[in-house]
Amino acid sequence: MGIQQCTSLRHAPELTDYNSSSLSALPVIVEEDDPYAEAVRVISDAIKRQAKRNARNGHEMLKSKAKAFESHEKAHAGHFSGKLAELDSKLQETEEKVEATEKQIDEERLRHAKAKEHIAEKVQEELSALQEEEEKAIEQQHRAESTIQAAEAELHKEEAEVESARQHHKEAIREANKEEKEIQKLVEKEKQKELEDEEAADAREESAEGKRKAKIGVSSSKYHLGPAFCSELTASGCPFAGAGTEDCKA
């Protein structure tokens, strides 16, 4: 039982403060008359020696494990230090990128604000120009409407004048037709008069011709004209060549 307790010191580094002196200081109760006193003493000495060895071995093991732990911690710390340095570098790079991005965003916002302001100014200028053009167009429309109204009034006046002139023209045509009819009647009367005058002149001429023929006939019968003289009168185209032909034949 005691030996098992001593060998278990390997697995209990926290008991490394025990040393041989502390173990040797433990009281060993031995009864003088006990037949097993010598055996107990031998076992006690063996336990003490084993405790010393265990203490020494535990101390060495503890130092070795402490060194290994320290080395592991140093390696772990170095690894974490490298990781931290890498992370710090990445963090710094990220912060620089974020700062550059924020700067770019600020510049973009400023550019956008300036562009927006420029667009607003341009839109305002265009709006003012459109309003001015609209006012000019309205003014021109009013002038055009006034001009159209004046032109319509003038057109109505001209239409009234044209209608009046048309009525006068119709009246003039009616008067002209009436005068033309009167003139036609006068012309017809004049023609009728001329025809009657011509007929009267023809009648007078025929009457005079008859009288001349009668005179020639009397003369030819009185002077007994010959056939030769009558032929000469006929050849010369004398209008009285036929008069007294009976006498010429005789």
From TrEMBL:
Chain spans, region Disordered: 130-216
Bias (Basic and acidic residues): 153-194, 201-211
Protein name as it appears in the record: Golgin subfamily A member 6-like protein 22
Gene it is expressed from: LOC34624079
